[in-house]
Every structure is written in C-alpha cells, then in structure tokens.
C-alpha cells in the first residue's frame, strides 16, 4: 500500500469542486463543495448519535437506504440544524444538485456544517450549484476540501493505492474537524471515495467496523456534534472482483480504509480548535477492548490533562485521575504511565505510584508537537488508542466568539 | 431560618484554626487547618467515586465506621495521593492531631488537597500541629477556610440558624473547590458542623440524600477528583430532642443542610478555576429526575457552551447540542431554551427551533456575573438544577502550569 495524491479524486471516476457561493460573508473562503462519481456507486454512512440531528443527516439517511449514491454536496457556514424548515432546505439542496449533475435526487448525499439554529438561505446555493457542477474536475479535491472547513486551520486530504485481484485500487478521503468533536458512532464530516468494487452490505460493514477504532476514538472538546457524518462511495471502476463477503480481499480493503481513516483522525485531532499539540493515548494491558477504549478516551478528554500538555507539564497525577474516573474497571495499583515523543520517552508512574524522573528530560519530551501518553494496565491483553489535542487559550478565544 | 456568621464555628462547641506549617513554600499562604468539637459528635461523610482515591480518604473511611468523630485535620499543597507511603502519612497525621488535641486517633477525619503523586513530608505537620491546636478558637473559621484553599480565589464559609424542639440550632460549613471539580457521589473538600442532636444513621441519611441534588450537580471541568469528600460533624450541644427518625425535625434539619450546601455549591462553581461567571442550568418538564439531572449537568459541562458564556454569546445551538448528546431520552422537538440573569430573560428556542430575539437584549442578559440557562422539556414534570462556570483563558493558564 502506498500514499498517492488526489484525495477524493484519486480513485477512478471521481470528480470534485469547491466554490464560494455566498453562504459566508467572507468572499475569500469557499463554502460549497461537490463530489461526484461518474458511474453508480455503492454507498455507506455512519451518523452522529446526538438526539438533535442536522436536517441534512435525516435526508441523507433516507437517500442511502438503497445502498447507492452518486454525489455529495456540502456547505459550510451553517449547519442547517434546529431550523423549522431544515428538512425542506436539505431536500432542495439535493434536488438542485441532482439537476445540475444530471442524476436522481435520491443519489445525493447532503451535508452541512457551521452554526446551529440559523435558517439556511437556499438562494446562494441555487445560484452557485451550476458553476459548481461546471467546475468539477480531477484536480478539484483541494477546493472541495477547503469548502467544507469551518475553524479548521489545515485542510485534511489523503489517498492510498493498493491491489485487489491484480487490479490497482485507490481509496481517498477529506475531512473537516476542529470543534464540537467528540464523535459517537460517527464523526465530523468525512467523505471517502474508492474505485474498489464492493457491495453495499460489505461497504457498510467495513465502515461501521472501522469507525469504532478510529473516528469514535477522537475528541477535541467532549461535545458530540449534531451533524457528524462519515460517508464512503465505491464505484467499482478499479475492476477488481466485487467484494461480497469476508476474506482476503475484504481484509485488504479494510487495511486501506484504516490507513486513510487513522491518518484523518490524527489530522482532525492535531487541528483541533486552538490546538498546538496532537495527543495520543495508547492503552495496553486492559481486561477487554471496551475498558481499553474507555480509559484511552477518558485521558484525551480530561481538561486538566489537556491543559497540562499545553503547559508541557508532566503532571501525570491528572492522567491517573482520568483513568480512575473513566468508569472502566481498573486495578489502579497496577497502572503505569510514560510520556513519549520524537524527543524520547520518560516513565513517570509504576504500580499506581510515582517514580523519580528527570523534569528536564520530561520537559524535552513534552516540548514536541506530537505527544503519546502510554498507559500500562495490569488487567489483561486488550489495547486501544485515542487521539485528542491540548487545551489552549486559542480554544477559548475561538469559542467565546464563534457566532458573531 | 437565618444566616449567621462564624462558618464552622457558628455551632456550639466547635473551634477552628489554620496556620502556615511549611508544606507550601509560599509563607503567606496557610496550609494546615483544624476543626475540633469540644464534645463527642455524630459524623457522616461521602467520598469520591474515582477508583484512584487519596490515602486520607481511605483512613477517614475507617475512622468514621463507628459514626462518630471529634476533629478534622486538612492540609493543602499536596493531595497525598498515588504515593507509596500515603496511608502511613495519613495515619501519622491522625495520630499527631489526636495527641495535640487529646482525643483518640480514630476520632480524626484526615483530608489533603493539592498536587497528586508527590510524597507528602510529615515533618512540617509534626512541627506545626502543636501551634495549630494552641490556636483553636471560636474565631478560627476564616483561617481554617484559607488553609484548605488551593487555586480558589474566594474563601467559602456560611452558617445558618434554625429551631428544633424549641432549641436554637446552627449548621455551618467551609469548602474548597476551584479545579478538578466534577463530583460524583461526593465533592471537593467540604466540612460541615452543627450543634443539632442527630443520630449517626440519620446524619448519614441526611448527607447522602442532600449531595445528590447539590454537590453532585456541580462541575467546573468534568474531572472527578481523587480526593473529594464532604464531612459533617453534629455534637448535639443545641439540646434539641435527638433526631433518630424521619419527621418534622428531620425535614427542618434537611432544609438547613440544603441551604448551606446549595450556597456552597454556588460559591464553588462561581469560584471555578479562571471563572468569570456562575452558570446555572435549570431543567423543567423532564420525564424523570434522572433525565432532568443528566440534561442539566450535560449543559453546564459543555466546553462549547461554557466558552460561549465567557464570550457572552447567545449561541443556544450549543445548549441544544449538549442536551442531545446527554444520554437522556428527550423529545428534541419539544425543547425550549431561555437565558436569564439580573438584567432580564430572553427566549431563544422553542419546540427545538430558534425564535427571533434581540441580540442586544441577549448581550445585556449575558453580560451579568450569574447566568441561568432555562431548559424546558416537554416530557413530564421532573426538574433539576446544575451549577458550573464559564471556560476562560485563565483556566488554561492556571492548569497549563499548576505543578511547577
């Protein structure tokens, strides 16, 4: 498997575009994205578990019932959530897109991201959809990627190439993350495309399995969004024998999918609102997978641990504290903790109690941009990893004045 | 019922003191507190549910098995948690205190608060306990209150007076809060004293019932401490007929207790690390009490809502979002939200969707120091209130560099 350029356009038959249509006042920021498969594609998606769901998710869920789709349309600047006319607007977005691209409205995935509870004006979308469709190209991924960003600083796109049944397959994706990131059974907006031939049922299985260890394991601020969605389209143009059951090909496809999703998870966490550091918590020795995941996520969610990492302070007591209140059944007298980065590794806690360590060495380790918190439990063999970011002044600044 | 001065010394027979003994380097900050009842007292306590428990809690729990105690000793600057010799040190603190006061070590409540995982040196406590006991007085509450503070800005003390069986009773308390505040079945350090005659069993029942709607409903940062503890001593010197069962007297006692604990809860939340505003979330119309509490706590815990309140931004979509992911079974299409403060009340959401409101009016409401977020559910008759604070630059600053 190797990384290739092109993002969501890397796979055969996928085109993308992004423009400024006028939802945002700032004309230099694109706000409408389109991804289209030239042929029919299997499609699968996972959605937020928040009871308050964006109207686009409800419409998309209906459209994906038959397991196929051809296009993804997504605006930023407005979440189209908690609006009385939300569903009507999301359906209008589908219809406008279908007409512009020449497909059925039921083959359109609709997504929106931005502020909640402000009516979304359909006029700029109606005016922009024609030019957007006309701009579709194999080079359109960076524009589409920019158009779905909100407070993201970095665009997030990646693609990989792999082989199935002698055929070269590609799988790529784009994501927006930043704030309100604490996915549960889904995540922020992530759009994945592949030319692999895979049945809708196996595509659903692949995606729903993968998100458990990837997007569900990241948190920026503990707030589970109302609009989280991960969508994958697979148009089969690679010509591989269609994947219709578990086996070697499915495993290879899962590996490619996981490479892309883990990369996007790390990119989303590293680009969390106001973040200066990517935090990774790797838990080993847990009694079971659920405990490992619970502990890892509790550590990356702890405000106190996040603030300590921002301050580059090896305050491991906060890690122990987060393990203790996680809800996982852990023998706290067997817990060990180390901090690791490109600058080295320093052990700070063994058997639930502190061990002497060099503060100088620890400061060097924590000065890096990617910090791994290694947690060793003494309860079994299960392991899990979670991703997050530090808590900074900038997070407060961004969110103290987001709407105005 | 009326408020009276004196805090934990307001009730008959209670003395207190606080000194700097040397646990903290800063000589101007007191770090060792003592509260003593001149006679035997019923005692009850609730503790953190964090699996990682401070050594003092384990020792205190043993001492309170018989339902009586005479003294509370508490140091700040070091939590005596995750230390190999923690228990030994906590027991030494009990013995030193018992010897200085002339009581049994089993009648001492031990508490510690501060950084986790750094050995606590017993030497300054051994040297300071004599002078501390000598300083005990009816005017000692402010000193004791200061000695248990960590990053608290405001001392928190209160007392009330009420009548039982024709006798005047008093109940007072002190608290420390600030950071790592997300109690579960207990809270930060809270010491309550009363001269009411009440049996250990009824005292336990009163305390464990009260904390469900008070200390368990506050959150500063979502981190449940390892050292949370609420203790109450009742020495019976008021001379009222001893409360040994439910009834009118028990109800009157519970009302006094609740007045003191709600006051302390609001004081802890308002003085949360870096806080500029007290947030109160009042939920009405919930299907049951558990749902009401879950929703109220989810709102005051939401980082995004907390940051919006700091920015005085009426971003009610974040409130809806927090309700939606709370885990409570809520009909989101019936939710209503208003913001209220001394400056007025503004309705922002009805039936799950936004209603037009004056941004100017909302800004005026949110500019106040105490903000109430009113949530109306359409699911039933249950109600609950939770307390928290805004998320500020100062929180990040305090916690980015706490240990060093």
Structural classification of chain A: alpha+beta
Assembly status: homodimer
Cα-atom radius of gyration of chain A: 21 Å
Order of helices and strands of chain A: EEEHEHEHHEEEHEHEHHHEEEHEEH
Examine the secondary-structure arrangement and name the CATH architecture of the largest domain in chain A.
4-Layer Sandwich
Query: Which class of the largest domain in chain A in CATH terms?
Result: Alpha Beta
Largest interface by Cβ-Cβ < 8 Å: A-B, 64 and 64 residues
Average predicted confidence as pLDDT of chain A: 91
> β content of chain A, as a range?
25-35%
CATH topology of the largest domain in chain A: L-amino peptidase D-ALA esterase/amidase
Main β sheet profile of chain A: 9 strands, mixed
CATH superfamily of the largest domain in chain A: L-amino peptidase D-ALA esterase/amidase
- What portion of residues of chain A is helical? 25-40%
Structurally, the number of domains of chain A stands at 2
- Number of E strands of chain A: 15
The coarse overall form of chain A would be globular
Calculate the terminal CA-CA distance of chain A, rounded to whole Å.
Answer: 45 Å
Number of helices of chain A: 11
């Amino acid at each position: 498997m190797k990384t290739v350029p092109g993002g969501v356009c890397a796979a055969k038959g996928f085109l993308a575009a992004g423009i400024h249509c006028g939802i945002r006042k700032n004309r230099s920021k694109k706000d409408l994205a389109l991804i289209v498969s030239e042929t029919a594609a299997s499609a699968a998606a996972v959605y937020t578990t928040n009871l308050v769901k964006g109207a686009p998710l409800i419409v998309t869920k209906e459209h994906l019932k038959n397991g196929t789709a051809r296009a993804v349309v997504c605006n930023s600047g407005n979440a189209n959530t908690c609006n009385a006319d939300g569903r009507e607007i999301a359906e209008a977005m589908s219809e406008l897109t279908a007409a512009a691209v020449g497909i059925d409205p039921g083959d359109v995935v609709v997504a929106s991201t931005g502020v909640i509870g402000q009516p979304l004006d359909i006029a700029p979308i109606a005016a922009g959809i024609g030019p957007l469709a006309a701009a579709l190209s194999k080079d359109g991924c960076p524009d589409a990627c920019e158009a779905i960003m909100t407070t993201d600083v970095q665009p997030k796109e990646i693609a990989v190439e792999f082989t199935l049944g002698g055929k070269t397959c590609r799988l790529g994706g784009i994501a927006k993350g930043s704030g309100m990131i604490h996915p549960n059974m889904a995540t922020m907006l992530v759009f994945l495309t592949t030319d692999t031939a895979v049945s809708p049922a196996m595509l659903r299985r692949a995606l729903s399995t993968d998100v458990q260890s990837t997007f569900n394991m990241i948190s920026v601020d503990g707030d589970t969004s109302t609009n989280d969605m991960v969508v994958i389209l697979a148009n089969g143009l690679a010509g591989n024998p269609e994947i219709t059951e578990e086996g070697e090909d499915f495993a290879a496809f899962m590996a490619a999918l996981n490479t892309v999703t883990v990369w996007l998870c790390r990119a989303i966490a590293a680009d969390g609102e106001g973040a200066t550091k990517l935090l990774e918590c790797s838990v080993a020795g847990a009694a079971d997978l659920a405990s490992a995941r619970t502990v890892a996520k509790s550590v990356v969610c702890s405000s106190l641990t996040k603030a300590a990492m921002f301050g580059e302070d090896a305050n491991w007591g906060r890690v122990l504290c987060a393990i203790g209140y996680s809800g996982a059944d852990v023998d706290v007298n067997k817990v060990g903790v180390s901090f690791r980065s490109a600058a080295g590794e320093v052990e700070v806690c063994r058997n639930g109690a502190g061990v002497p360590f060099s503060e100088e060495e620890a400061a060097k380790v924590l000065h890096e941009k990617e910090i791994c918190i290694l947690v060793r439990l003494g309860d079994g063999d299960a392991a899990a990893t979670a991703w997050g970011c530090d808590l900074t002044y900038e997070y407060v600044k961004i969110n103290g004045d987001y709407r105005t």
